[in-house]
């Protein structure tokens, strides 16, 4: 059967993996993340032709290592670019053909980020964008430069490789990335012209409501949306205002409280490390131990023995 007859016009993010040519290095599919999937691949040094369907989800790619001469065929027209680490390209929601060759002695590896359209729409609602300003104009971007987007993709790539990074941290990152893309790459506006409604100030009473909720639910899988609801703000505004008022991001604040409670339990109870990790909201003891050692300099068991 001819390859073209086997490739649909659109597919899902989960199914997209079967069309990739490289060896998968990292995947967030089994992580409890919402609204996004991130994968990275070790690519062949040369690919004569790779054909893939389009995706409904917003898809960005970048190089994690190496450099390449990349060509794509979109709507019957070939175009090319030389790409290096830190440069980005966009995968439009239409069938596309790719071919490439490495132009570096380093291994060629790529990072693929897929963001659900529902998240883009949700953030656009929070930013009070309507009409054409909700649509991203990245369709012709064979290659584009945006250091902030590149840094966010790099941070998400590291998070996918690190079991100690929490869903709250990833949730904040992807919301910020969606807001940045809408602000700078929306149709019908010039870059930097997005106008944000000034958020209501988080008065001490509202801060106490959120922090009390966090303390009472350290074992729960807390999300930005859940904490924002306690403050009576949109997710987008909440993260900004919370940091302004407390000096910490929600992720930093929750992590600090979880580890402080874990340290208290290690000192004052005979609960096992596994029991304590669950009590303070970590998926398992190994994830908890990595984060605890990162912040306290010793493993939970060594901390307990030290007294």
TrEMBL record:
Pfam families per UniProt: HTH_18
The residue ranges crossing the membrane are none
Q: Does the keyword Transmembrane helix apply?
A: no
Keywords, in A-Z order: DNA-binding, Transcription, Transcription regulation
One MF term in the entry's GO annotations: sequence-specific DNA binding
Report the residue ranges that make up the HTH araC/xylS-type domain in this protein: 208-306
Q: Which PROSITE patterns match?
A: HTH_ARAC_FAMILY_1, HTH_ARAC_FAMILY_2
Transcription regulation among the record's keywords? yes
The record's annotation in InterPro entries points to: AraC_XylS_family_regulators (IPR050204), Homeodomain-like_sf (IPR009057), HTH_AraC (IPR018060), HTH_AraC-typ_CS (IPR018062), Tscrpt_reg_AraC-type_HTH (IPR020449)
Q: Which PANTHER family match?
A: ARAC SUBFAMILY, HTH-TYPE TRANSCRIPTIONAL ACTIVATOR RHAS-RELATED
Q: Could you identify this protein by its name?
A: Transcriptional regulator, AraC family
- This chain's source organism reads Paraburkholderia graminis (strain ATCC 700544 / DSM 17151 / LMG 18924 / NCIMB 13744 / C4D1M)
């Amino acid at each position: 059967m001819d390859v073209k007859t086997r490739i649909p016009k659109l597919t899902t993010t989960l199914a997209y993996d079967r069309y990739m040519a490289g060896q998968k290095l990292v995947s967030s599919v089994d992580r409890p993340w919402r609204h996004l999937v991130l994968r990275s691949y070790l690519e062949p040094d040369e690919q004569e032709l790779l054909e893939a369907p389009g995706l409904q989800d917003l898809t960005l790619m970048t190089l994690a290592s190496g450099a390449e001469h990349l060509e794509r065929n979109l709507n019957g027209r070939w175009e090319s670019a030389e790409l290096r680490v830190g440069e980005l390209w966009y995968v439009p929601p239409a069938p596309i053909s790719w071919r490439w060759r490495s132009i570096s002695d380093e291994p060629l590896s790529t990072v693929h980020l897929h963001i659900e359209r529902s998240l883009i729409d949700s953030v656009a609602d929070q930013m009070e964008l309507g009409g054409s300003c909700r649509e991203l104009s990245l369709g012709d971007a064979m290659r584009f430069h945006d250091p902030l987007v590149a840094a966010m993709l790099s941070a998400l790539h590291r998070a996918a490789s690190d079991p100690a990074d929490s869903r709250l941290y990833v949730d904040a990152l992807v919301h910020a990335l969606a807001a940045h893309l809408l602000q700078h790459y929306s149709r019908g506006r010039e870059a930097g012209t997005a106008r944000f409604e000034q958020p209501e100030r988080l008065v001490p009473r509202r801060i106490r409501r959120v922090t009390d909720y966090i303390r009472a639910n350290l074992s729960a899988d807390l999300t930005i949306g859940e904490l924002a609801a306690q403050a009576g703000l949109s997710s987008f505004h909440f993260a900004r205002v919370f940091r302004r008022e407390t000096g910490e991001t929600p992720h930093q604040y929750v992590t600090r409280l979880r580890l402080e409670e874990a340290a208290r339990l290690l000192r004052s109870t005979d609960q096992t490390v596994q029991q304590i990790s669950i009590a303070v909201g970590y998926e398992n003891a190994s994830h908890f131990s990595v984060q605890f050692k990162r912040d306290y300099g010793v493993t939970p068991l060594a901390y307990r023995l030290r007294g």
